[in-house]
Amino acid sequence: MSTHWTSISAATTPDQDLRxxxxxxxxxxxxxxxxxxxxxxxxxxxxxxxxxPTGAGKEVVTQAVHMLSGRPGPLVAVNCAxxxxxxxxxxxxxxxxxxxxxxxxxRPGRVEQAQGGTLFLDEIGDMPPALQAKLLxxxxxxxxxxxxxxxxxxxxxxxxxxxxRDLSQEVAVGRFRQDLFYRINVIGLSVPGLSDRSEDIPALxxxxxxxxxxxxxxxxxPRFSTAALxxxxxxxxxxxxxxxRNVFDRAAVxxxxxxxxxxxARMLMMVPGLMATDAEMPQGPRSxxxxxxxxxxxxxxxxxxxxxxxxxDIEVALIEAALDLNKGCVAQxxxxxxxxxxxxxxxxxxxxxxxxxx
Length: 358
Prior knowledge:
Elements: H1 14-23, H2 29-41, E1 48-51, H3 58-69, E2 75-79, H4 85-93, E3 94-95, E4 107-108, H5 110-113, E5 118-122, H6 129-141, E6 143-145, E7 152-154, E8 158-163, H7 167-172, H8 178-184, E9 187-190, H9 201-216, E10 223-224, H10 226-234, H11 240-254, E11 259-260, H12 262-270, H13 292-300, H14 307-325, H15 330-336, H16 341-351
Parallel strand pairs: 1-8, 1-9, 2-5, 5-8, 10-11
Antiparallel strand pairs: 3-4, 6-7
């Protein structure tokens, strides 16, 4: 975390420099470009659209934009995908007492709450078309009318939106208003996926370790070996920083105060529950999975089972099968297992697998 924000933003104080360094971790070229863009666009009042894959850190980028904006008001966030459509209008624009069943009090919406600050609309691509039209009017008039109210309230906020969708494609198929798209897509910030900045993984883990040591004590934090870091850097990370955080959390629980070796790292990355839920993971036929009854009988007939050895045997069998199906071609076998070629080669060396031609 050697980048000093004071060197790219004259308005940054030493305290903000430290807070921003903890928010946006990494010194890769992709992160350096992103930080420079944030410093340039933050002071402007123009709308910003943050785009990037799920789990890459779009909300963190928004926090940095708000921190550097100089606006005295709060950062108010709304996840448009997490709130039911029939409740989102009231959440955004507020309501008067008696506006609908259950509206027992007057309530300002998130737009009003962001007065003088920043309104962050996450996953704006999921906003219903009717609300898109109302949001457009608020942006054009700078006034909001609560549900059930007659008064138009003047508002002043900076809008930041985020989405993992291609909004231009959503416009083309009629799911997103073209006029709203042009109104919010004035300045764009692109957040790189973790695979595009894998050199930042050690720094990200160091930041997670620092926070964990404060929470749990220095003796409880896991340690990551060079071999583990090498495997992490070669991983595809479909869930991006969020997936890395899941792996770290699991490591902290399973290996408190211990060093994480290569085998441990493989096991942590192979746990299905840690994979991003929206990643496209291949699903094999149910018959190809180990039979539960057979496994129970095997455990009943043996005093113990070395889990890592058993998983390693399965890994060897899968790699050898992929090589056989692809006539020994490492690149094609790696693709069939959703691995990078370099990761495949490393696994083959580690597991002493030689049946390959390239």
